[in-house]
C-alpha cells in the first residue's frame, strides 16, 4: 500500500545518496530576531488549549499559555508555580487553595486574575473536548463547576475535588496543556452562541505565555509573535513554524540556512549531521512507548510461560542499536523514563534457550502460529521484522499483517488481534496516565465501560487494578512514587505487554541557535530562551 | 487521488472519442434537417446530462469504499483515549448505527444542500478546506501544464519530422527520463541541485517567510493575489517559488505530451494528403504546422485536457517534497486518518474537475473540427 509515510521514507532514503554531496553552506538567511522551525504540523486541528490534544498544538499551547503550576525540564518531577505563588491543601485533601503571583500579564496587558483561572478551568470542563478528562477525573462536571472551581478574590482560587486527592496527582494534571489559562474578557467577547469562544480560539490566542498566535494556516505555517507583556520576555520576536512534510527537504533547508531548527529528521540523517560541527542535535526522552500487546483471548498467549518466553526471545539491544539508534531507547516498564515513579530496570535480554524451555514447559515445544499487526511505516515495519525473526528462533511463527496506524488501533480496540505492536504516549505528566491504561481492568466483557489497554489485551486484573487505584489516591508523593515502582515490577513480569522502547525526540539546529528547551511532554518544549548568534 | 507515477496510466487512449457517426443516409423520407446550432446545443446538453450520473457513481463508490476500510471513523473524531460514552455518542452522531443505505441517503441529502460535512482533521467545513487547498494546486498545475505544452508539443512535432534521426532519439531519451524517473527522486535531485547547490531557486513552500501574510488573500492563488494587491515583490517571490515544483511536474507531463504529439504527427505525415502537398511544392513548415498539426488538434486536446485534470487533482509526492499545501496532500492525510467527509468531498471535487475539463475538451472539438457536430 502506498502510504504517505512510506513515501517519505522512500524519498528520504533517496536523499541519503546525494546527501554526501551536499556541502552545507550554513549561512544565516533568516532574520536575526525570527526563528524558523521546519516541522510536520499537519496534526494541528485546533489551537484552543482546552480542545487541542495533538503534539504540535500542545507545544504551541505550552508557549502561548501559562498554567497554575508546571514542571521544569531540568527536574521534571518537581512541581513549580507558574501562575500560582503558592498553594495549600485542606479539608482532608479535598480543598486546594491557590494564591496567584503578582506580575503575569496577558498579551492584552491585563493582569491574570483568579477569575480568569476559574473561567479557564471551568471552560475546559464545560467544553468537554478530548483532553477534558484530565480535569474531569477530579469530579468536575458542567453542573458543579460553578461551586467547585471558584475565585474567592482577585488572587485566590479554590478547587474542591469530589474525593480526597493526592496533591501531586492534581497538580501534575493541572500542569497539562488543558490547564492553560485564557483571558476571560477576550474569550467571552469573541464567543459565538454557547461555544465559549471555541471557534475563535481555534486560530487565535488569549494567553499570558511568552508568545501569542499571529496566524495558523493548516498544513502550511504557524506564526507566533512575542507577548509584549510577558513576565519573561522571549529573545525571539517571532517564531515561524513551516510545515515541511519531507525530512530530506527539512535537512536541505537547514543546510541552506532557511530553517533554524528542524524537527523530523530520520535516524540516518541525524547520524550524518551529528558529525557536522555546523549543527547541533538535541535529544529529549518522550513519554511515549512502543510495546507489544499479547491478546489474552488467544489460549496460547494466555499461558504465563508463553508471555515470559516472548519477553525473553526479543533482542531489545540489537533492535535499538541497529534500527533506531538515535530515536528510541530500550525501556521495559510502563512508566517512561522521565516521569515520576518510572522504573528503569531492564530485566529482559535475548535468551533463546530459556525462552524455548519456557515454551516446552507450556506444552508448546513445537511452537505455534500467531498473527502480528503493526503500522507499516518506518521504523515500525523494520522493528516488526526483527521481532518476527526473534520469535521464529523459539518456534513462534508470526503472520505479518502491516496496516495503517489507525487500522491497527481499531483492531486492538475490537480485540481481534493476536499480537499487535502499538505506540502509546502519556496523556499528562502523572504516573496515573499510563498506570490507568496498562494496569487497570476490572470488567473484561465487550461492553466494559472503561476500555483500557489492559482491557484491549483481555487481561482481567482485579487485584492489580485495586493496587493501581490505591497508588493514585496516595497523598504522600514519596510513598506514591514507591507504590508505582512496585506495581511496575509486578507488571513487568506478569503482564501481556512486552514494553520494548521509549521514543526520543530529536531536534537539529544550526550551531548558532541555542536555548531550545525540550521536555518529556510536548507542552514542555519552551521557546522562551532561544537565541541566535 | 493517485500518486504522480500512476497519473498517466489512466489517461484516455490516444485516439479522441470518435466523432459522432454521421446520420445514415437512408431512404427514409427526409425530415426537416435540424440546424447546426441546434445540433451543437444538443451535443452539449447530452454531455451535460452525463455529469450528474458520473458524479453519482463516484459518490456511491467512494462512500462504500469509505465504509469498508478497516479504520473506525469514530477514532478519528474522538481519539484513542475517549471514554466509552463519548465514543458511543460520536457513533450515533455520525449515524453509524444506521444501515448503510440509510447513511448513504443521508449523505446524498447533505450533498444536495451543498454541505459536504466537516473535516475531522481540520475541523473546518470540507467545502471551506477545498476552497483553501485547491487554489494552491490550481496555481501549480496551471503553470506546469503551460510549461509542458510549450515544450512538449514542439518537441513532439520536431521528433516526428526527424523520425529515426538523432533528434528523435534524443527526444525519446529525454521523454523516457521524464516519464520513468519517480517524481520524488526528480524533485529531491532538483532541490539538491537548484536549491541547495546552485541557489537558483528558493526552497520548499509557496512563499518566503518575509512575505507570509503580507498579501491579502482574495483568490488563494498567490501570484494572482499579489498582482491584485500590486505587490511586485510578493509576485516575484511567489513565481520564484513556483518554478521548481512546476518544472518538475511539467517535465513529467511533457514527456507524455511529446510522445503523444509525435505519434499523432507521424500518422498524419504518412497520409496521402501530405504527399500531395509535398508534390504541390508547399513548404515543409506549412505542411507540418498548417496541415498535419491542424489535423491532430482534436486528439491532442484530449491528451492535454486529461493531463491537466491529472495535475489538478493534486500531485501528492510533488506537494509533499515541495511543502505545497494542495489538494493532493489534503486528500492523502485525510485518507490516512479515515476522515471520510474530507475524502468524499475532495474526491467529488476531483471528479467534478475531470467532468468539467472533459466538457471543455468536448466543446473545443466542435470548434476545432467542423465535422464534429
Automatic annotation (TrEMBL), chain A:
Cellular component terms per the entry's GO annotation: ATP-binding cassette (ABC) transporter complex; outer membrane-bounded periplasmic space
Localization per record: Periplasm
Leader peptide range in chain numbering: 1-22
GO biological process: peptide transport
Matches recorded under Pfam families: SBP_bac_5
Key words, A-Z: Signal, Transport
Family from the record: Belongs to the bacterial solute-binding protein 5 family.
The name this protein goes by in its record: ABC transporter substrate-binding protein
Species annotation: Teichococcus wenyumeiae
UniProtKB/TrEMBL annotation, chain B:
Membrane topology: Multi-pass membrane protein
One Gene Ontology MF term: dipeptide transmembrane transporter activity
Annotated spans, Disordered: 1-28
Comp. bias (Pro residues): 15-25
Domain (ABC transmembrane type-1) ranges: 134-365
Residues annotated as transmembrane: 43-65, 140-161, 173-196, 238-258, 296-322, 342-365
GO cellular component, one term: plasma membrane
Keyword Magnesium carried by entry: no
SUPFAM superfamilies given in the database record: MetI-like (SSF161098)
Cited Pfam families: BPD_transp_1, BPD_transp_1_N
Chief localization: membrane
Keyword annotations from UniProtKB, A to Z: Cell membrane, Membrane, Transmembrane, Transmembrane helix, Transport
InterPro entries: BPD_transp_1_N, MetI-like, MetI-like_sf
PROSITE patterns (UniProt xref): ABC_TM1 (PS50928)
Location(s) in or outside the cell: Cell membrane
Cross-referenced CDD domains: TM_PBP2
PANTHER family, alphabetized: D,D-DIPEPTIDE TRANSPORT SYSTEM PERMEASE PROTEIN DDPB-RELATED, DIPEPTIDE TRANSPORT SYSTEM PERMEASE PROTEIN DPPB-RELATED
Family as reported in the entry's similarity comment: Belongs to the binding-protein-dependent transport system permease family.
Protein name in the entry: ABC transporter permease
Organism of this sequence: Teichococcus wenyumeiae
Amino acid at each position: 500500500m502506498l502510504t504517505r509515510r512510506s513515501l517519505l521514507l522512500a524519498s528520504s532514503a533517496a536523499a541519503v545518496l546525494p546527501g554526501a554531496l551536499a556541502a552545507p553552506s550554513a549561512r544565516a538567511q533568516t532574520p536575526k530576531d525570527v526563528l524558523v522551525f521546519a516541522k510536520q504540523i499537519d496534526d494541528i486541528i485546533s489551537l484552543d488549549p482546552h480542545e487541542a490534544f495533538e503534539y504540535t498544538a500542545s507545544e504551541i499551547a505550552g508557549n502561548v499559555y501559562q498554567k497554575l503550576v508546571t514542571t521544569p525540564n531540568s527536574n521534571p518531577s518537581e512541581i513549580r508555580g507558574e501562575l500560582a505563588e503558592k498553594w495549600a491543601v485542606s479539608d482532608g485533601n479535598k480543598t486546594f487553595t491557590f494564591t496567584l503571583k503578582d506580575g503575569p500579564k496577558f498579551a492584552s496587558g491585563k493582569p491574570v486574575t483568579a477569575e480568569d483561572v476559574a473561567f479557564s478551568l471551568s471552560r475546559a470542563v464545560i467544553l468537554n473536548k478530548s483532553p477534558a478528562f484530565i480535569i474531569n477525573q477530579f469530579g468536575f462536571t458542567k453542573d458543579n463547576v460553578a461551586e467547585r472551581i471558584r475565585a474567592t478574590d482577585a488572587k485566590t482560587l479554590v478547587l474542591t475535588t469530589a474525593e480526597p486527592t493526592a496533591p501531586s496527582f492534581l497538580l501534575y494534571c493541572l500542569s497539562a496543556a488543558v490547564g492553560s489559562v485564557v483571558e476571560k474578557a477576550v474569550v467571552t467577547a469573541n464567543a459565538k452562541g454557547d461555544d465559549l469562544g471555541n471557534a475563535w480560539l481555534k486560530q487565535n490566542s488569549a494567553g499570558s505565555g511568552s508568545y501569542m498566535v499571529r496566524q495558523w494556516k493548516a498544513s502550511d505555517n504557524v506564526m507566533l509573535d512575542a507577548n509584549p507583556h510577558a513576565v519573561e520576555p522571549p529573545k525571539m520576536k517571532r517564531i515561524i513554524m513551516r510545515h515541511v512534510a519531507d525530512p530530506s527537504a527539512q535537512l536541505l533547508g537547514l543546510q541552506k540556512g532557511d530553517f533554524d531548527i528542524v524537527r523530523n529528521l530520520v535516524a540516518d540523517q541525524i547520524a550524518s549531521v551529528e558529525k557536522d560541527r555546523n549543527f547541533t542535535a538535541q535529544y529529549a526522552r518522550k513519554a511515549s512507548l512502543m510495546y507489544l500487546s499479547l491478546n489474552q483471548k488467544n489460549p496460547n498467549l494466555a499461558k504465563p510461560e508463553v508471555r515470559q518466553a516472548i519477553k525473553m526471545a526479543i533482542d531489545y539491544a540489537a533492535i535499538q542499536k541497529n534500527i533506531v539508534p538515535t530515536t528510541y531507547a530500550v525501556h521495559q516498564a510502563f512508566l517512561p523514563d522521565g516521569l515520576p515513579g518510572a522504573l528503569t530496570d531492564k530485566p529482559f535480554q535475548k535468551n533463546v534457550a530459556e525462552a524455548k524451555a519456557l515454551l516446552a514447559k507450556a506444552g508448546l515445544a513445537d511452537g505455534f502460529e500467531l498473527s502480528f499487526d503493526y503500522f507499516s511505516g518506518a521504523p515500525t515495519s523494520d522493528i516488526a521484522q526483527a521481532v518476527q525473526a526473534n520469535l521464529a528462533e523459539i518456534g513462534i511463527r508470526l503472520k505479518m499483517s502491516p496496516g495503517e496506524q489507525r487500522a491497527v488501533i481499531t483492531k486492538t480496540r475490537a480485540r481481534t488481534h493476536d499480537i499487535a505492536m502499538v505506540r502509546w504516549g502519556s496523556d499528562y505528566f502523572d504516573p496515573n496516565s499510563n498506570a490507568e491504561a496498562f494496569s487497570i481492568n476490572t470488567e473484561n466483557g465487550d461492553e466494559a465501560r472503561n476500555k483500557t489497554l489492559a482491557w484491549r489485551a483481555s487481561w482481567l486484573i482485579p487485584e492489580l487494578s485495586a493496587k493501581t487505584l490505591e497508588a493514585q489516591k496516595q497523598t504522600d508523593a514519596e510513598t506514591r512514587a514507591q507504590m508505582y515502582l512496585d506495581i511496575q515490577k509486578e507488571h513487568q513480569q506478569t503482564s501481556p505487554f512486552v514494553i520494548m522502547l521509549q521514543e526520543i525526540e530529536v531536534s537539529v539546529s544550526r550551531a548558532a541557535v541555542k536555548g531550545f528547551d525540550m521536555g518529556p511532554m510536548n507542552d514542555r518544549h519552551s521557546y522562551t530562551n532561544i537565541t541566535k548568534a | 487521488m493517485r500518486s504522480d507515477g500512476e497519473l498517466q496510466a489512466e489517461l484516455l487512449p490516444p485516439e479522441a472519442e470518435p466523432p459522432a457517426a454521421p446520420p445514415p443516409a437512408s431512404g427514409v423520407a427526409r425530415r426537416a434537417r435540424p440546424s447546426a446550432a441546434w445540433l451543437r446545443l444538443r451535443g452539449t446538453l447530452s454531455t451535460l446530462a452525463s455529469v450528474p450520473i458520473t458524479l453519482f457513481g463516484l459518490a456511491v463508490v467512494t462512500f462504500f469504499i469509505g465504509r469498508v476500510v478497516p479504520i473506525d471513523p469514530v477514532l478519528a473524531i474522538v481519539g484513542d483515549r475517549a471514554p466509552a460514552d463519548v465514543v458511543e455518542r460520536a457513533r450515533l452522531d455520525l449515524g453509524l448505527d444506521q444501515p448503510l443505505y440509510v447513511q448513504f441517503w443521508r449523505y446524498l441529502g447533505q450533498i444536495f444542500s451543498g454541505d459536504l460535512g466537516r473535516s475531522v482533521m481540520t475541523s473546518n467545513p470540507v467545502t471551506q478546506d477545498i476552497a483553501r487547498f485547491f487554489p494552491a494546486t490550481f496555481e501549480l498545475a496551471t503553470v506546469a501544464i503551460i510549461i509542458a505544452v510549450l515544450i512538449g508539443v514542439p518537441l513532439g512535432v520536431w521528433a516526428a519530422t526527424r523520425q529515426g534521426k538523432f533528434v528523435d532519439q534524443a527526444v525519446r531519451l529525454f521523454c523516457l527520463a521524464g516519464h520513468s524517473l519517480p517524481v520524488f527522486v526528480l524533485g529531491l535531485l532538483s532541490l539538491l541541485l537548484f536549491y541547495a547547490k546552485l541557489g537558483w531557486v528558493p526552497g520548499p513552500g509557496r512563499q518566503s517567510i518575509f512575505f507570509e501574510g503580507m498579501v491579502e488573500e482574495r483568490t488563494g492563488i498567490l501570484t494572482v493575489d499579489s498582482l491584485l494587491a500590486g505587490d511586485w515583490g510578493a509576485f516575484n517571490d511567489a513565481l520564484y517559488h513556483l518554478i521548481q515544483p512546476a518544472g518538475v511536474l511539467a517535465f513529467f507531463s511533457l514527456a507524455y505530451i511529446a510522445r503523444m504529439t509525435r505519434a499523432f504527427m507521424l500518422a498524419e505525415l504518412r497520409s496521402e494528403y501530405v504527399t500531395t502537398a509535398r508534390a504541390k511544392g508547399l513548404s515543409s513548415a506549412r505542411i507540418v504546422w498548417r496541415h498535419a498539426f491542424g489535423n491532430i488538434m482534436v486528439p491532442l486536446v484530449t491528451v492535454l485536457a486529461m493531463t491537466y485534470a491529472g495535475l489538478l487533482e493534486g500531485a501528492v509526492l510533488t506537494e509533499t517534497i515541495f511543502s505545497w499545501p494542495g489538494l493532493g496532500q489534503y486528500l492523502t492525510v485525510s485518507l490516512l486518518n479515515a476522515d471520510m467527509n474530507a475524502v468524499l468531498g475532495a474526491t467529488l471535487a476531483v471528479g467534478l474537475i475531470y467532468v468539467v475539463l472533459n466538457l471543455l475538451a468536448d466543446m473545443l472539438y466542435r470548434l476545432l473540427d467542423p465535422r464534429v457536430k
